[in-house]
Amino acid sequence: MFWAPAAISIRRTWKRLLDGHCGIVNVNHRDKRFEEQPCQIAAVVPQGKKEDGCWTASEWLSRGEERKMAMFAQYAMAATEEALEDAGWKPTAFEEREVTGICLGSGIGNFDEVYDTVVAYDKGGYKKVNPLFVPKLLINLGAGHISMKYGFMGPNHAATTACTTGAHSIGDAARFIAFGDADVMVAGGAESCIHPLAIGGFARARSLATDFNDNPTLASRPFDADRKGFVVGEGAAVLILEELEHARARGARIYAEVKGYANSSDAHHMTAPKENGEGAYMAMKKALKQAKLPPSAVDYVNAHATSTIVGDAAENAAIKSLLLGPDGKKKPEDVNISSTKGAVGHLLGGAGAVESVFSVLAIQDNVMPPTINLDRLANGFDCNYAPKHAQQRQIDVVLTNSFGFGGTNSSLCFARHDY
Question: What is the rounded end-to-end Cα distance, in angstroms, of the chain?
Answer without folding.
Answer: 24
